[in-house]
């Protein structure tokens, strides 16, 4: 997934811009001009003024505003969910759940943020040392389209709770969602310039990173975009946090509860049409239960309801864009040519829109696209492991290290094996989710740094030590 992939068009007056296209039917329903360089300079100045005001706002007042934002999100839930569904095809039930998750995030930091920002003191050689957590400035955030509200809020809420500003470059196909989010912050009473949406061209992004009014950078997106942003931030000596791709393993051992594992596997792979960084993608099944798992899993996948995302009965909607669907199909075709076997799906759905049939491949081995690459769509790849150790070995045989799942009837074995998995998170008898109470982030080519919990809150804060004598 690339956060820099942007639909563009020409507008009246020859102003280039981003385009909102409904992936259900291919209809363009909104156009959003890119900022001119002059407009960008004005936004950066406004962001600096907003930060200078916000950093001096007491943590308790910031927390109160987060609670107000939660109320606004719940009040505008249907409107905002509809925009996400129209812009990137998320089933409406899942889109509403995304808004509620953002509201719960605001409430959690509103409840816990002031406590997590308190000074920490200790005695050193008879003197007193105090560590204070102080804001750095405005953080430039390049965010993707797959969760147009949650991804932005997951970064913005802890960053802003800490007293920083948030300068958002949304993906080009979800600018409408980003603008609704900006309106919601304004309605909640956030000072002008603290949360800013900037619809930028590719050439403007490095200008923002280099600007002295930007203190740090965060990105959720693909590996190529991460390399680009990280190098630009490094050249400016600015901190960056990257949450990049994933090819998450979903291990099922022979003693696992197969009913529970299969239910979780279907959700973990096919929610949001499989367009989730932390989605389970590689299903590594211990040999004694591989046949039973595969047969029942394929049956459950075939039963998924694919259709119009505005229909509340739909479980799988369209992919966000046609080029993403075509890229995914190329990965499937390459894997089949390399020896994988197609059990269901494997084709675009006939008719309008960017639909792709929920797909299951088995006999998938390292070296195949379905094993090595990030398959960002409704495709599950099954690989058989000879035993638990082999399963972990296969799980770690990836350039990615975002998260993973491990299913077993013995929790002690699950915890032991989890520590051997080279990922930022492991879910024993569960599937990967993001929750404000625990950090999320990856290792290897899945990026670095953490979001959420107190770890995410302090990523963009200056841990300032003040050592004073006791006179």
TrEMBL record:
Domain Aldehyde dehydrogenase, first and last residues per copy: 20-466
GO molecular function list: aldehyde dehydrogenase [NAD(P)+] activity; succinate-semialdehyde dehydrogenase (NAD+) activity
Keyword field contains NADP: yes
Pfam family of the protein (one): Aldedh
Residue span of region Disordered: 1-22
UniProt-listed Gene3D superfamilies: Aldehyde Dehydrogenase, Chain A, domain 1, Aldehyde Dehydrogenase, Chain A, domain 2
Keywords: NADP, Oxidoreductase
InterPro entries: Ald_DH/histidinol_DH, Ald_DH_C, Ald_DH_CS_CYS, Ald_DH_N, Aldehyde_DH_dom, ALDH_GabD1-like, GABD/Sad-like
Family to which this protein belongs: Belongs to the aldehyde dehydrogenase family.
Protein name: NAD-dependent succinate-semialdehyde dehydrogenase
Organism: Lichenicoccus roseus
């Amino acid at each position: 997934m690339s956060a820099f992939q942007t639909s563009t068009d020409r507008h009246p007056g020859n102003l280039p811009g981003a385009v909102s296209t409904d992936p259900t039917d291919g209809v363009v329903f909104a156009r959003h001009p890119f900022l001119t360089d002059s407009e960008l300079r004005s936004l950066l100045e406004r962001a600096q003024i907003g930060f200078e005001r916000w950093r001096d706002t007491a943590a308790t007042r910031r927390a109160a505003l987060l609670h107000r934002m939660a109320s606004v999100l719940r009040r505008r839930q249907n409107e905002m969910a509809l925009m996400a569904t129209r812009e990137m095809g998320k089933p409406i039930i899942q889109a509403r759940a995304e808004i509620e998750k953002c509201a719960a995030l605001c409430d959690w930091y509103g409840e816990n943020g002031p406590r997590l920002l308190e000074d920490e003191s200790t005695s050193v050689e008879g003197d007193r040392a105090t560590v204070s957590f102080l804001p750095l400035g405005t953080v430039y955030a390049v965010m993707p389209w797959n969760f147009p509200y949650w991804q932005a809020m997951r970064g913005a809420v802890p960053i802003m709770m800490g007293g920083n500003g948030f300068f958002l470059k949304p993906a080009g196909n979800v600018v409408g969602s980003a603008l609704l989010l900006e309106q919601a912050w304004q309605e909640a009473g956030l000072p002008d310039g603290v949360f800013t949406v900037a619809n930028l061209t590719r050439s403007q992004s490095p200008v923002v990173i280099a600007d002295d009014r930007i203190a740090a950078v965060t990105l959720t997106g693909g590996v190529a975009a991460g390399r680009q942003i990280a190098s630009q931030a490094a050249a400016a000596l600015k901190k960056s946090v990257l949450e990049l791709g994933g090819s998450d393993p979903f291990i099922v051992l022979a003693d696992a509860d197969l009913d529970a594992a299969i239910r979780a596997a279907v959700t973990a792979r096919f929610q949001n049409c499989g367009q989730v960084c932390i989605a389970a993608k590689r299903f590594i099944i211990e040999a004694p239960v591989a046949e039973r798992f595969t047969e029942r899993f394929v049956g459950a996948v075939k039963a998924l309801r694919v259709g119009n995302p505005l229909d509340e009965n739909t479980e799988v909607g369209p992919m966000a864009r046609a080029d993403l669907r075509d890229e995914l199909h190329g990965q499937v075709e390459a894997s089949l040519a390399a020896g994988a076997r197609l059990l269901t799906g494997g084709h675009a759905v006939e008719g309008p829109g960017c639909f792709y049939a929920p797909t299951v491949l088995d006999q998938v081995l390292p070296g195949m696209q379905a094993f090595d690459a990030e398959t960002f769509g409704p495709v599950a790849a099954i690989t058989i492991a000879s035993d638990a150790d082999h399963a972990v070995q296969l799980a770690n045989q990836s350039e990615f290290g975002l998260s993973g799942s491990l299913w077993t009837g013995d929790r002690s074995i699950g915890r032991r094996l989890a520590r051997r998995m080279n990922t930022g998170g492991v879910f024993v008898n569960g599937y990967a989710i993001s929750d404000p109470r625990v950090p999320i982030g990856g290792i290897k080519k899945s990026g670095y740094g953490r979001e959420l919990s107190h770890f995410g809150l302090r990523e963009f804060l200056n841990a300032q030590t003040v050592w004073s004598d006791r006179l």
